[in-house]
Amino acid sequence: MNHPSRPLFGLPVFSRSICWALPLSIALISCQGSLVSAQDAKKAAETAAAKPQAETKPEAESKPEAEVKQEAKQETKITESEKPTPAKQESKTKQGEKPAEKPASDAGNPSADPKKMESDAKASDGKETDKPKPDDKPKPDDKPKPDDKPKTEDKPAKAEKPAPPSEAPELPSEAPELVAQWESKGVWLSPPTDGPAAIDFGLVGEFVGELKTDAKDTKRLGVQIRALGNGQFEARAYHGGLPGQDGFSEDGMMVLIGRRSGQTLVLSGGPWAMFAGEKQCKIINAEGATLAELPREQRISPTLGAKAPEGAMVLFDGTGTDAFINGQMTPHGLLRQGADINFLLSDFDLHLEFKIPHMPKYLDQARGNSGLYLQSRYECQVLDSFGADRVFNGLGSLYRHKAADVNMALPPLAWQTYDVHFTAARYGADGKKLRDAHVTTWVNGVKVQDNQRLPGPTGHGQPESLTLLPTKFQDHNDPVRFRNVWVIDRGLTGGIEFPVKAK
């Protein structure tokens, strides 16, 4: 039995009536709310039934809920896109014009085609629409009038991208009649492509590798083979490698001669025989043992293609001969021999690239002859000296004055380089010479003349005087070609490293 003063669930005894009455009150309130909601629903239904039939939208009621949502999205997008911007609305209002009325959307138009509405709704979501069937084509009366079309802001036309510059067409080669004329004389301006001449030219070149010795050791050997015409050849073998390479020596050089048999060249003249082909040169001793198989070596000058540094003058780049007197350019953009530089130079650094024709039947000074006549007085010789002796009138020599320190000639028809560092003679006020001219030259990147003194004109050079004369590219009646010619006038620009190596 509970004591009257003992609390029940933490409440005094007199509060038990409240605890039992509270749930009953909540239930009554809920019932009253339910009744009110039912009455409101009944009243809303009666009001809807009393509305005219014309205000109903059978299209929306008959369509699935998803399609109704799609149409609502479309209506919203069309309405927003047709709203005039505040700036335009303000402008039209200031002019006394009324803003254009928005066209009625298909969602609120009872006469709109449901299939068309469905297609438009899909298009607004970025989905591909089905092609309309013939029966689905709108009738002429259903087409929107011009005034009903929504006004859209004119977009500025996109600027067309400029067409990429067309690549320069390849320049034609030498005129066919000129090529035929030279070939009839046994001179090729480009490698022969057929017949015995092509086979002979394919055997010309450099070979380098290791040679076995009697002591069962090896030593480096370099071989240069040149053609002499009619299947005849000459070769030089150098200990230590090819001219210009580390370890090269002219001591003990051997000269071999031979003839071609089919595709193979057989050379002899030393303690062994040499069988040369296009890819390698094989050396065999008297017992038939193979002493070496030397692969072909194709060297390129480190200054070939060197670009003119800042401050230099480009004299010839294949686009014209304005920097020359008597300058002539071939159809494929090369400078012919016989041009004179149209600048009177005193102290200068000159870079040029040259190509000597293939003239197997010609020897010595008749074989690819040209030259650089510095100030028309001092000649730096240009000649096909490949595989020949180092002489005082060969490539790199100061003509008939001093031979090159190294015969750095490469095979004919290969592009080669000449770099010249020249300092003119100095004279006093009385016209007497105080100091001789000096020159340093590099052929194919190797120094062949080192600050050589020039006491007077060389060869057929003009007499020395105070007067500056042009530098000439000699014409010796052989088709020697030049390209990439540039000069540094040290009287205008100094401190430039020379020669410049190609990158």
UniProtKB/TrEMBL annotation:
Biased composition annotated in UniProt, kind: Basic and acidic residues: 54-104, 113-161
Region named Disordered: 35-175
Any one GO molecular-function label of the UniProt entry: hydrolase activity
PROSITE patterns: PROKAR_LIPOPROTEIN (PS51257)
Domain of life according to the entry: Bacteria
Domain 3-keto-alpha-glucoside-1,2-lyase/3-keto-2-hydroxy-glucal hydratase positions: 314-487
InterPro entries for this protein: AL/BT2_dom
Coiled coil: none
Protein name in the entry: 3-keto-alpha-glucoside-1,2-lyase/3-keto-2-hydroxy-glucal hydratase domain-containing protein
Species this protein is from: Neorhodopirellula pilleata
